[in-house]
Amino acid sequence: MQTVSNFNFAGKKALVRVDFNVPLNERFEITDDTRIKATIPTIQKILSDGGSAILMSHLGRPKDGPTEKYSLKHLVTPLSLVFGVKVKFATDCIGEDATSLAEALQPGEILLLENLRFYKEEEKGDEVFAQKLARLGNVWVNDAFGTAHRAHASTAVMGKFFTDKVAGYVMQAELENAQKILEYSERPFTAIMGGSKISDKILIIERLLDKVDNLIIGGGMTYTFSLAEGGKIGKSISEPDKVSLAKELIEKAKAKGVNLIMPVDNVCADDFSNNANRQTVNRGEIPDGWEGLDIGPESVKLFQDVIAKSKTILWNGPMGVFEFPNFAIGTNAIADAVVKATEENGAFSLIGGGDSASAVNNAGYGDRVSYVSTGGGALLEYMEGKVLPGVAALEA
């Protein structure tokens, strides 16, 4: 796979697929610019080589064509500030405006195209649409690992129309760090899996059972495991139809000698709100009418002890409803434990995108762990062993 590091962009117009699907508030201001910051090294390398960058991305899930809420024009000013050059903007991603602006683009300049998903052809992986995009530049750079698991026009199909196909620094780092976890992990290796559903994590949990020493389970999926063990979960989130699956995973962990670690206590509430009444109960003893929203203090200590002794740590998914400050205590404590293991014990720690990445970044720990993935679903699928279309297109 060719990478940005070993490609000279002098005189080239690089069509760069970035992941600028960033959250905006009601005033269209960016509330988390992690994904934009991640692409800075790739874009700066193109410009410093003497090339120009044509940036293409999606934003949100527009349903019926152009929508003010999802226009990438809202990113022009912040991007101009980040790169120190006035970013040009095409009011379409194909067509006359995009073509004329791309043709006039000079070395050192940046052009941002309008939201790719204003065209349904993008998500359909339409070849004609991909070819129209491809005509705007003469080298394709894919730096959007977060969308690499989608066979969309700009993330995979475009590769057919370029001789020069290059992985950006984000793509390269995501793949290298995932490989480090999967193939070169130092032991003890601990995986921390959170989130609400076993069904979302089943494939990666099964694959990790062949690789880890410890598997910590937190978040909403623990209540399905509680059901499997005959516990009471009140009105906690669960997947009753996955109880047999939970039992299977418990048995598989035993058979493979993996230390499967569940919460021993839970913080539960009488309502799904930050200000609900709270109580801490033992695992499997949540009263009727109450729901578990976080791990309890004894679970925190148990998890922290395992993390402290680990040399490789993979964390994907929060321990509770971390959006509510009163139920973010468990998630924040795990973030703190992962940071300590990294800084004090030399552990390699990979935070697996999505909510766990947000939790780590919100706590100000983003630069104190080994790597924070921007991938989310793409990272999970890669670790499950699936072929990612966006990666395969770069290797073809």
Automatic annotation (TrEMBL):
Keywords: ATP-binding, Cytoplasm, Glycolysis, Kinase, Nucleotide-binding, Transferase
Superkingdom of the source species: Bacteria
Annotated HAMAP family: Phosphoglyc_kinase
Cellular compartment(s): Cytoplasm
Keyword Transferase: yes
Entry keyword annotation includes Kinase: yes
GO MF entry, a single one: phosphoglycerate kinase activity
Complexes and interactors: Monomer.
Reaction equations catalysed: (2R)-3-phosphoglycerate + ATP = (2R)-3-phospho-glyceroyl phosphate + ADP
Gene3D superfamilies: Phosphoglycerate kinase, N-terminal domain
CDD domains registered for this protein in UniProt: Phosphoglycerate_kinase (cd00318)
Pathway where it operates: Carbohydrate degradation; glycolysis; pyruvate from D-glyceraldehyde 3-phosphate: step 2/5
Residues holding ATP: 201, 292, 323, 353-356
Residues bound to substrate: 19-21, 35, 58-61, 117, 150
Major localization class: cytoplasm
Classification via Pfam families: PGK
Protein name (database record): Phosphoglycerate kinase
Family: Belongs to the phosphoglycerate kinase family.
EC numbers for this chain: 2.7.2.3
